[in-house]
Q: What sequence folds into this?
């Protein structure tokens, strides 16, 4: 019993940061997106999603999002999904991958529950009642990583949403939210692209 608990305790953010070879950032950060439509600020939830945020910051340091198009926009009457990042189906992915220095094209799905000290990894909510205990849910301006497989996130692709989506809560790694410039996000079209992403703190 003790051995099982010891093993479980090792599977935490430090374990995955070491496995994926990047420094674990466990504090909230602010990053600036500069796009062809204008600029907006995003708060990253490093306290709740250290692996996902650390991976994203590493991507920024490697400049992989510079001059990347918002490659997919999904429009519904009440909501928009704005996809960005490096799409593996894009030929540029292979060229950029050489600069990623990554061991994997995916990272673990990372979800934090209230009253739990550590996030859960490779786990997605199955019971709708569990969503009541999630720390982060989809809100206006949320950013999450694209799914890759059932319980994995892409290491390079992300998307923004313009409305709440309770149906998707607990199924994606939500790791930040726009805190300034939401009007810019709503104007983004498929031909727009990211000029740069800069880390503030």
A:
């Amino acid at each position: 019993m003790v051995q099982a608990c010891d093993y479980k305790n090792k599977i935490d953010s430090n374990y995955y940061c070491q496995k994926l070879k990047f420094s674990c950032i466990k504090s909230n950060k602010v990053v600036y997106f500069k796009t062809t439509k204008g600029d907006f600020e995003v708060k990253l939830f490093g306290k709740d999603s250290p692996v996902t945020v650390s991976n994203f910051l590493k991507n920024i340091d490697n400049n992989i999002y510079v001059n990347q198009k918002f490659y997919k926009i999904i429009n519904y009457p009440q909501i928009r999904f704005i996809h960005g990042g490096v799409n593996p189906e894009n030929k540029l992915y292979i060229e950029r991958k050489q600069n990623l220095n990554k061991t994997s094209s995916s990272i673990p799905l990372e979800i934090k529950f209230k009253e739990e000290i550590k996030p859960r990894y490779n786990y997605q909510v199955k019971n709708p009642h569990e969503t009541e205990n999630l720390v982060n849910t989809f809100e206006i301006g949320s950013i999450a990583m694209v799914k890759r497989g059932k319980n994995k996130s892409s290491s390079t692709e992300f998307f923004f949403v313009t409305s709440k989506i309770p149906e998707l809560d607990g199924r994606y790694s939500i790791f930040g939210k726009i805190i300034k410039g939401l009007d810019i996000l709503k104007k983004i079209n498929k031909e727009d692209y990211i000029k740069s992403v800069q880390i503030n703190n």
In short: The CA atoms of residues 8 and 16 lie 13 Å apart.
